[in-house]
Amino acid sequence: MSDITRREQTNELALQFGNAWNYAPSREGTEQVSLKPRYELFIDGAWTAPKSNRYFATINPATEETLAEVAEANEEDVARAVTGARAAYDNVWRKLSGKERAKYIYRIARALQEKAREFAIVETLDGGKPIKESRDIDVPLAAAHFFYHAGWADKLHYAFQGREARPLGVAGQIIPWNFPLLMAAWKIAPALACGNTVVLKPAETTPLTALMLAQIFQEIELPPGVVNIVTGAGATGAALAAHPGIDKVAFTGSTAVGKRIQQALAGSKKRLTLELGGKAANVVFADAPIDQAVEGIVNGIFFNQGHVCCAGSRLLVEESVHDIVVRKLQDRMRTLRVGDPLDKNTDVGAINSKMQLGKIHEMVAAGEEEGATRWSATYDLPSKGFFFPPTIFTGAAQSCRIAREEIFGPVLTVLTFRTPDEAIEKANNTMYGLSAGVWTDKGSKSFYMAQRLEAGVVWANTFNKFDATSPFGGFKESGLGREGGRQGLAAYSEVVG
Ligand code: ADP
């Protein structure tokens, strides 16, 4: 029996016994989460009202309900935070030995583990991602990042082959909304390990877990001013990047804003690392284990609603297996559970904001206008909140916007190739270069591809795997510098000697 016939029979059965696919809801409780109605700025180890006197609401994108009010920092507030970070750098943090810094970072990691459940729930409430992801990926990886960097704090001379690593000073860090806690960990942990102090600005739609992290800093008695958290939108981020008192800017977000920051910093003493957009190719060869590859494709683009800079948003599939891969992908997509992010069964949760949902709709409309064929399974989407069904486009040309531009949503564009070199040419035909995937039975082919794909990360027979020990970052317009691993320490150190 061919694969396709077998699938058809399975689908028949699924239709007959439709309920076999339906899981009873298993909702994570929110009782143990106690959010404050209003959050102030975290400056110099204390909560302080913004000089701006302004607050904004952060909402749950799955219900559109307000979760809390958050302070909006203006230039004066940013300046206060930078002054606090500078004083902590000069008077306390740079004077501590690596061993002492490590103790604080270990404490942060352990406290995060102790409160893992609370953090996972708030991450899901504020950002819309499925609880199984925030619980199994975001929070454990964030804790791992602190553990890993605590280990480096007293061993930096080994990281740089015996040369001395000096801290840079005050780091201004601006992060996006797709992995709010994890991005905070990616930024804060190496900065502290290398002896820098921090002013962090979380994204305006997802500030809550960073503010909970500030509560942890108080509990573990991190010296005041070592990490300051200023909430606000783009203007707050711009004020932070432009402040003359910072020595380093670390930014993760859109390529457009990254370029603006790079322009603003031109000619200044400030160091810069940028982690920007992506349009990753997931390359599937005819000899790949197709079912495994289909899981990897699904994970690559529908994981976290496609809100992943390194999402596998372009599927490059060898022409001879195009039909079977698309067919199996559609079968798998029919079984995805889309909806309430707090339900432990949910695979695809809410789109992070109304604005982002609008952008996805716009890109999908562009794909249809340009003649690509749109397909989506039928999902019972909640009536409230921001949801978008997992969608694929076939028959798209390389020149289509959906094949070139980042969509940052659960939308996959399928393209074909005939030879490895054609796959490489198509995969590299983008201004981005953050990640790529290769699916093949042949190890030699994986290496051949990995050496030629212009991407900071190339996954072979897997996708979206992260580890604190592994450097992450982009080629081309996907960014500058690396985060994580030994290489990530260089971004926060002046290496001398
Ligand atoms: P995304 O498309 O992922 O939302 P953005 O680049 O708009 O990416 O946002 C990422 C982070 O950058 C957020 O914290 C946002 O508030 C901040 N930001 C937006 N505009 C600016 C700016 N002009 N300067 C500095 N930070 C900014």
TL;DR of this structure?
The chain is of the alpha/beta class.
Plain-language structure description:
- With 497 residues, this protein is α/β, with parallel strands linked by helices.
- It folds into 2 domains: 38-276 and 475-496, Aldehyde Dehydrogenase, Chain A, domain 1, CATH 3.40.605; 278-460, Aldehyde Dehydrogenase, Chain A, domain 2, CATH 3.40.309.10.
- It is 41% helix and 18% strand.
- It has 17 helices and 20 strands.
- The chain has helices at residues 3-16, 75-91, 98-114, 116-127, 131-152, 156-159, 180-193, 208-219, 234-242, 255-265, 290-302, 322-334, 354-369, 401-404, 420-428, 443-452, 485-489; strands at residues 38-39, 41-43, 46-48, 55-60, 65-71, 164-167, 170-174, 197-201, 227-229, 248-252, 271-275, 281-284, 314-318, 373-376, 391-394, 411-417, 435-439, 457-460, 479-480, 493-496.
- The chain has a 7-stranded mixed sheet with strand order 14-15-16-13-12-17-18, sandwiched between helices. The chain has a 6-stranded mixed sheet with strand order 9-8-7-10-11-19, sandwiched between helices. The protein has a 3-stranded mixed sheet with strand order 1-5-4, covered by helices on one side.
- The termini are far apart.
- Adenosine-5'-diphosphate binds at residues 174-177, 201, 203-204, 233-234, 237-238, 241, 253-254, 257, 260-261.
